[in-house]
Amino acid sequence: MTAQHLAEALRGRLIVSCQAPPGDPMRETATLVRLARSAAAGGGSAIRADEPEVVAAIVAAVDLPVIGLWKDGDTGVYITPTVRHALAVAEAGATVVAADATDRPRPDGSTFAELVNAVHAAGALVMADVATLAEGVTAAAQGADFVSTTLSGYVPGTPRRTGPDLALVSSLAAAISVPVVAEGRISSPEEAAEALACGAHSVVVGTAITAPTALTARFVGALVRAGGGQEDDL
Question: Contact 17/185 with Cβ under 8 angstroms?
Answer without folding.
Answer: no
